[in-house]
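Weekly sync, protein design subgroup
Attendees: M.S., D.O., the rotation student, P.L. (late)

Item 1: inverse folding check
M.S. brought a backbone from last month's batch and wanted to see whether the design step gives back something sensible before we order anything. D.O. pointed out we never logged the input encoding, so this time it goes straight into the notes. Structure tokens as presented (377 positions):
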């Protein structure tokens, strides 16, 4: 009997809840580390980014297991780890313990999203995988957008309640995942390194990692930059996320309509323009305008890269292919968190934004090269 449709709505909600937790920590962690440990900007950037490093390492394994029918088990485990990581951050009494908890949370987020997406893609029409991945990916970004707002409200009642809220969101994600019908029969093949890296995904992976550097810079230093320079710290991440979600909702179908390569070029032009505005901004309106452009520019990088990846990798193991490429997004965010924090300490905030602009331009060059290669092929 052919498998029925994926429980997409439930899986969307599972991912949304898990990323509410992660988004909440992006807002909560900088101030929490400063008040509890007197952490430096460089350490805060590392703490934010290291979760994405763990995610990068775990995504291909999650995608491989989900391709083999273990999607439900992977997603449930990921949601539990997300909650455990939040509890670890709340109870940490030393900086190294925060880093360890961030690694646990990052592994959990990898399992949730990269376990759920293959579950959906395997049962999606091939010609609609680009737009479907874009719409499903909004679960992650909706969580990252709304998480800071929820935690911000909880903070009015104290930091302890804010951390409890983050942990509860992870547990709620696990609960919905447990109630979701299983993915199908499990048939795990022998795990080999080459099983986690399909052919011809290297180029889109590099493109995606460079595009991710911009988001990593925003997540690591934007709140501190706005707090210390121009104001509007409570609006920065919300403006970024709102622009991202509007552009993603409006433009996801453009990948199937106009082609993934064309969309990748266009979205990276907008991202680079946003950082150019942010670098030259002298007030809160200019800075938030640049943030909005970066958010809109980052928005379609994921569905465009998925379209490019699946076209190059073929139909075999789409979950592994997408997870392997997405791991470079996490690596880019980690690199930006570490480098951005160091640049702020050693130079200034503008230097961190210049580095992000250069990464966006390199990603744009990679997208143009891939587009020309496809045309010539």
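Designed sequence read out in the meeting:
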């Amino acid at each position: 009997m052919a498998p029925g449709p994926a429980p997409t709505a439930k899986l969307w909600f599972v991912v949304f809840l898990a990323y509410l937790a992660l988004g909440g920590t992006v807002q909560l962690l900088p101030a929490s580390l400063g008040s509890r440990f007197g952490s430096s900007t460089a350490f805060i950037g590392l703490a934010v980014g290291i979760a994405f490093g763990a995610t990068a390492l775990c995504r291909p394994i999650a995608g491989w297991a989900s391709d083999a029918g273990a999607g439900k088990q992977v997603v449930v485990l990921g949601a539990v780890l997300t909650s455990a990581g939040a509890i670890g951050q709340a109870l940490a009494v030393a900086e190294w313990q925060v880093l360890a908890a961030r690694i646990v949370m990052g592994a959990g987020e990898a399992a949730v999203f990269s376990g759920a997406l293959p579950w959906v893609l395997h049962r999606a029409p091939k010609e609609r995988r680009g737009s479907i991945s874009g719409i499903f990916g909004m679960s992650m970004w909706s969580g990252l957008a709304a998480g800071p707002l929820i935690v911000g409200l909880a903070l009015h009642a104290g930091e302890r309640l804010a951390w409890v809220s983050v942990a509860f969101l992870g547990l709620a994600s696990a609960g919905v995942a447990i109630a979701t019908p299983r993915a199908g029969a499990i048939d795990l093949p022998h795990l080999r390194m080459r099983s986690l890296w399909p052919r011809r995904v290297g180029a889109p992976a590099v493109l995606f990692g460079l595009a991710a550097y911009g988001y990593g810079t925003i997540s690591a230093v934007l709140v501190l930059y706005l707090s210390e320079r121009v104001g509007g710290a409570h609006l920065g991440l919300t403006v970024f996320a709102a622009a991202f979600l509007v552009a993603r909702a409006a433009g996801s179908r453009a990948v199937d309509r106009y082609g993934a390569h064309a969309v990748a070029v266009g979205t990276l032009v907008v991202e680079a323009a946003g950082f150019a505005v942010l670098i030259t901004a002298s007030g809160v309106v200019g800075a938030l305008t640049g943030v909005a452009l970066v958010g809109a520019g980052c928005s379609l990088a994921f569905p465009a890269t998925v379209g490019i990846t699946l076209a190059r990798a073929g139909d075999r193991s789409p979950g592994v292919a997408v997870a392997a490429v997405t791991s470079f997004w996490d690596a880019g965010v980690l690199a930006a968190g570490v480098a951005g924090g160091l640049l702020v300490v050693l130079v200034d905030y503008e230097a961190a934004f210049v580095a992000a602009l250069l990464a966006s331009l390199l990603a744009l060059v990679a997208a143009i090269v891939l587009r020309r290669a496809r045309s010539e092929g």
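Discussion: Residues 262 and 334 are 27 Å apart (CA to CA). The first helix runs from residue 8 to 37.
Action: P.L. to compare against the previous round before Friday.
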